[in-house]
Structures are given as structure tokens and as C-alpha cells.
User: What shape does this take?
Amino acid sequence: MPLPAQLHLTLPVWVMELDIAGRDFTTDDAKVAFAIELSRHNVERQSGGPFGAAVFSPQHQLVAVGVNRVVRQSCSVAHAEMMAYMLAQQRLQQFRLNALGGPVVLATSAQPCCQCYGATMWAGIDRLLIGARAEDVMALTEFDEGPLPADWAGELTRRGIEVVRDVQRDAACAVLKAYGELGGPNY
Assistant: This one.
């Protein structure tokens, strides 16, 4: 049997049906609220875990989105942030998203886990907007966010990535709580 030579990851069909025409993404609140909306849809439609992320251009235009697809795609790296990064990189044909100028922003419904934290350093992100904290994720769900450096935010800042935490935190926690109350379904 030949070794696989191609990987095919997809977002759920409902992502293509989102009405984003005319949406104003100029504020941090609007960007994170959209990431939380993605996470909520992912839970409500049983298409993945309670995480959403979106990449925005320097002009506040939506470049790509991601939702958690780990179980559905049988792929441990199919986290919301990773999906958003990969789709944005393909769309822009740049492995460093800010190579053509910045600031490029990632808005995420929850603090990146250790995997997504590492990817954030290399993806060419200038600003990281975060809803829920890792401790919220672990308190409200059964997810293990993995080990991060004690001063993870400081490390990103030293690398030129501005970190903004607790944006729409209560709304992000509400999605995590709803998911946790469902028993953390494997979808």
C-alpha cells in the first residue's frame, strides 16, 4: 500500500453559508465576537469542539476562519487557530501572513493551546485577540490545553505579537459552558 501523499481538511459546510456581507470588523470586540459566533455554531451544529478563530487583514477584512475539526477530520492539529492559519496561508500564498504588511490579526474564542501558541509565533500574526482564558477552558470542559511557558504572553510580546486577553470573555465562556454541559461530545 502506498504512503499517503495528500492531506484534505475541510471546514463544515455551514461556514460557507455565513452571511458576512457588510459586517464591520474594525474593532477588537467585533473580531472576537465573530470568533465566538463560529465556536457557538460549531457546538450547536455538532460539527466540532467549542473553538473558533478568524484571521483579519490590516484593513480589517476577513481573510479566513477556522473551527475545531479534530474529531471530525481525525486530525489532532485541526484546531480552530490552525485551520484559520492554514486557510489564510493558502489564500494569500504566504506562509508568513504578515509578509506583505501588517498588522495581521488572529481573533480566537479561547486562549491558544500549546500547539496553537507555537504556530502563532511562525504564522506571521501581529496581534492576538483572545476571548476565554486557558483556565476557563479547563474548568468548563474536559480539554487539556497543554504546557505553556510561565510568561507565554510576554514571550509573544517579545516576538512582536501584541496579546489582548479577555475580549468578550463572558460570551466565550458561555459557549464553553454549554459544550461542557453536553458532556463534551465527540464531534
